[in-house]
Amino acid sequence: MEEMKPPVAGMQSRGIYEPFCNYVMETDKVIFAVAEIEEQIIGFSITIIDYKRFWRKFFTNHILLSIKVVFKKFVKLLKHNRSIQLSSEPVDISKYLSKHNTNRSWKDSSPIIGKVLYIAVKKDYRQKGIGKGLYKFRHKILLQKGVKRVDGKK
After folding, report:
1. How far apart are CA 116 and CA 89, in angstroms?
2. Are 137 and 33 in contact (CB under 8 A)?
3. What domain range includes position 124?
4. pTM of the entire structure?
5. Is residue 53 part of a domain?
6. What residue ranges in 69-131 does DSSP mark as E strands?
7. Beta strands in the chain (DSSP E)
8. Are strands 113-121 and 149-152 parallel, antiparallel or unpaired?
9. pLDDT tens digits, residue range 42-62?
10. Which segments of 42-129 does DSSP mark as H helices, in order?
11. DSSP three-state, residue 11
12. φ, ψ for residue 96 (rounded to 5)?
């Protein structure tokens, strides 16, 4: 994970990767699929079932880490609000809004909803079907676990 640096709870450091990976191995609410060649990890996918419950339990078990994440998000929010105040030009956001009605939300959470947290394939191995293989593997397990919907961020 350190090599591909996926954001986990908004952080990209060993300080979160280690407890996150340990917790992932203890729960059946996460599908952590790994692609490897000659004992070298070349890609992985992380999908969480019942997203809110997973994170609540993770941060309850890692209090100091949760304080660090909240502090980091608070600082980021302050910086963001400050940059908005400094910007005097209005921004047209209509091009970013969905053209069709949808009732899906990243905030939705239940035992039948899976959230794709991250999928990555090393640069040298892209366009070779590895990502597709990770998706197929993950999809098969999600079906076995009774998941009816999978959401992901673009």
Report:
1. 35
2. yes
3. 14-85+108-152
4. 0.68
5. yes
6. 113-121
7. 30-37, 40-49, 113-121, 149-152
8. parallel
9. 999 999 998 888 888 988 988
10. 51-61, 63-86
11. strand
12. -90, -10
Tokens of 130: 């590895």
Counting the structural domains of the chain, the total is: 1
User: Comparing C-alpha atoms, which of 125, 122, 123, 113 is closest to residue 149?
Assistant: 113
* C-alpha neighbours within 13 Å on the C-beta side of residue 120: 15
| Strands 30-37 and 40-49, bridge-based pairing | antiparallel
CATH number at residue 48: 3.40.630.30
Q: Are 147 and 113 in contact (CB under 8 A)?
A: yes
Burial class for 82, CB neighbours closer than 10 Å (0-12, 13-18, 19+):
exposed
75, pLDDT greater than 60: yes
Length of the chain as a residue count: 154
Q: Please name which of 113, 135, 5, 142 lies closest in space to residue 54, comparing C-alpha atoms.
A: 113
